[in-house]
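I am going through a labmate's work and have reached the protein record below. What it holds is a sequence and that sequence's fold in token form. Please read both lines and tell me whether the tokens look consistent with the sequence. Do not assume that whoever made the record got everything right. Thanks in advance; the entry in question is below.
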Amino acid sequence: MWKLAEAIGPFQDEIGFRCCGRSVGFLHQASDPDLEEAELTDQEASDWSAIFTSRKILIMVCLGPGKGTLEMQPYDDEANVSEITTVPGLVVVLRTDQLSFKFFCRGREATHVATSFMLQNDILRMHRNKLEAHLTPPAQELDQWIDQRLREIKEMEPDEPTEEWTAKGDVPRNFIHAANRTWFKRQTTVCKGAAARLPVTWEPEVFFLGCTAGCDTVIEVPIMRWEHDTVYDPSPDAWKKDPPMTNCRHASFVDGVDLFDNKLFGLSLAETKGMDPGQRLVLEVTYDALYRSGMRKNTLINSTCGMYVGTSFSEWNSAEKAADVGIFGATGGAPSITAGRLSFCLGCKGASLAIDTEAASGLSAVFWAAEAVEKKGAGHIQELSCGIGVHLCLAKAWWPAHTAAGFLCPGGRCFTFDASAQGHVRSEGVGTVVLRCQEKMDGQEDKEELSVGTIVGGATQNSGKSAGMSAPSGPAEQAVLVEACRKSGITTLDVDVVECHGSGRFIADAIEAASCGRALREGADSNEEEMLQLCSMKTNIGNCIETSGIASLIKTFHSIRWGIVCANNHLHQLNPHLDISSCPLLMCTEPSEQKLSAVFVGVSSWGFGGTNVHLHCYGGVDEEIRLPPEPTPQELRPRLSYWPSGGGDLGSMSRPRRGFFIIGSWSGWTEPEPMEDEGDGCYGYTLVLGDTRWEQFQLLIDNSYSKVLHPQRYKAPKGTEVFGPTRQEEVMQDSTWFVDGRPFSTQIRAITASAGSTAVATPEPLTFTNEDEGLPGQLYRIRLHIAGKWRTVTWAKAKEAPQGLLALKGPEAKYYVAGSWNNYRFEEMTAASEGTYTCEVSLTSGPNRFQIARNGDWHQAIFPVSPNAGPTAEIEGPIDRKDRHWLVSASTGDKLKITFQRTIDASGSSKMKVLWEKF
């Protein structure tokens, strides 16, 4: 099968698509077609769905021992069925996108065939609306069957699906996955807008795109923040010194923390001076997010928009700043006032909460904001909710304490999942997501609404009594992962990617990865389909504590929209405590494609006090920002040019009364000649190849230029579809068939591949020569085949030319001069002797340019190889006209005699020479 597939590979351009893969081989035993067909099962539909959608070519090898029957028919109701009898050893290559087929045997003796399909895999990534253009009728029928079956599965689903229900019966697991990705039976929360101030950028999507490129925003603490050398000591025991020091000198910082438009929010300059920069950024970023979601200040007044701010102890009170804070100093740095000030400045009357769960604060705020907009059947709900996280590095005072606690990494990076993980580096960030409830039932949603992403559910729990208040708890993390799946209405196997907390702590990372594997992939097969990808945003920018959950969520929204899973930076050697042999886990070191068009991605956060939060995001690739593969345009899509069994009717306009005629370049397109009726819908004409060793032609019905048959392309090869009859003036320019007798040889290296663990040797290049190669005088039989409504034109060598060059001659060629002195109108040259032609012309003042054309045909132009050439220049042609001319300078009244010489040797090659003289 591989050898046959390799032989097809070089012809991908000619067959009109790119073969991206090959299916596995199948062994079939043929049966009597009269036997009752077995009912299609879910597993069979699942196994064949992708193949039916993307298959393009069938390779079938008949194994025997008996004979069989292959029945074929185009996807055309008018086409007749064609049957061939197969014998052992017969190989059939068939276009499945053009023909339906059925193989069976009529005798008692069974027969077997081996099959494989050449696939165009990028079809599977197309949007459903565009995918339908590639679906053949059998694929459409199977797709509709699966679609109906998915609806039935979702209707049978209990309110709280379990793994036991998933495994119940014969329903394939991927059917459960597809049903969960297509129809929801519960509410979802849509993110209408998102804004953030993160290291390096203020634009969330730019932040994500940087992550795809492996950006690393961590730098040494800049002098504009504080003099870090006063607290830095590289020794491992720096925190034990007096005064305590830190052995970490790196962090990520947000630009513009000192900038603020106080007038936008109606705040006085005096109040602004005493405000924590974090509070100022929360005001700006939250209004930015609301603005992106379509809200304005006048629409926010008296709205029920809720503010849920993930914040903690502010370093503003420990920062080096001016002392004139005035009467606003008490509230300027109070975390509890952040949410209240936000509601006050924007006039919102929804809930206003400050949530402090350390590094889980931001994601906790989003969780409770999503809960607040959910419709629970009683009372009024909040129209909108804002989930907010804020963390700034404003003082050096707490760095020694964090070093003593083992939080900070001396290496200056977050080495999440790596063997060198020793902690995290701090990072700044402020982020806001605007949430609104959206009911999505049976695949319906409001396409007009602004949407950054969708949250389908989540859960939050505390570790309770564990090894330590700051120690991660594996069972607690597993419990919150499973609970989040239950509340989202999906199974644990539906989760494709997890954006981990991944703070770079050696043991904590191993516990989190193991918890994801056991909770989401326990008992799953270790194969590509069940692989769970783990990634962490902290390897790019560090740990922005209260904002880390928000930043991970925003990154996840854009990751889903772009269909890309970001890599983990600084991952060189896997943490030895990570056992990935028992669970199908993957920590990518390079960006990768999402494995499905629509995915569920989990986002996790963990707080120092034991708080675990996990949310599920859902969505597919946004086709406005990342265009999916387009279906092949209709005009370029391969068409069945001829079906020998026929079917249908051409109509009265296409039936000749006087017969078919042929007209071509050998006569200068001036003398149509009749074609002979060979019977059975075939008409023929014998062509004598001219001295150019190629000819072009068209066909006429009843010798009428208003009934031209043509191939709808330039220099069409044999076997192409016949179009028409069409009026000559309406025929596409240069729509002709092309008989090429010139020699050529092309080498193409076949596709190499591997079958299992055995490497296939690189094959020798395939050499192709011109089967129509012939010298001048060679005879070709041109045939027009008609079967029902199907028509095609073919040709083949009739016989070898008699001995001696040009023993058989076609019409004598004529040559014409066309120049700038007469606006390139043809002037016929006179034959002075055999192979010599002359013409006298009157020139105009200045430069005069000219070319020569055989038979007055610009497709048989003769010109120099260099522009503006003299008589000694090398000559090219007869071929299609190019912008190269001979140049003669003249005065008014000058005349020019042009002499053209052309001789043809025994090999069929020609020698040409152009001379001229003024008189």
Notes: The first helix runs from residue 2 to 8. The chain has 19 helices and 48 strands.
